[in-house]
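User: Fold this; tokens only.

Assistant: Input:
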Amino acid sequence: MAPPRILDPRQVPVAGHDGHLPGIPAERLSAGHLRTRFSAGRPFTPEMPGDGRRFDLSREPSPAAVLVPLVQRPDGLSVLLTRRTDHLRDHAGQISFPGGRCEPDDASPAATALRETEEEVGLARRHVELVGELPVYTTVTSYMVTPVVGLVTPPFELALDGFEVAEAFEVPLSFLMTPAHHRRHVFAFEGGQRQFFSMPWHGPGADGQTREYFIWGATAAMLRNLYRFLSD
């Protein structure tokens, strides 16, 4: 039997926080260190290889890719994220990286990530320096997602695809790479349980108003893998 969908992750009990783990030092949260770390090519095993058991085992997993856009701001790197529109079939209303399914014409996961980012938020690829990829992450919705990490050079303008993207916003990388902000949830259901991370961020949206952005699920897991990658 397929696991039930999590309709409101905020209501799933928090099993613990990871404040006992060290944060990433500031010198490792720089463009130069990211280039060096990815170019080193050291083996890396992700802490979170996927969400868990897929909803539909009859559906073959589809390759997909996302861009992890690290914007080079004067006060440090920030992560450009999107809030999905509420009517989408998969991941409606969730916080996500720009990205999507690989198309036959895409030469690589990086090509998919750049194409999807241009289509979803209008970020031109000339602003993006690709530095590497994290291991594939498998979602419960049957996507095998390659996170492609890129450094984004301002200034740039965004043009959101209103059908897929409700909002784009930035979160300081230092916040997301601090494990004290990583919350562990356990969703129990008949026949098993599912564990996931959340990293709630309170910050200004595109309208300047401060609100909570509940980063969880696959996006939080890939950020957690980035934390482990930079800790190594």
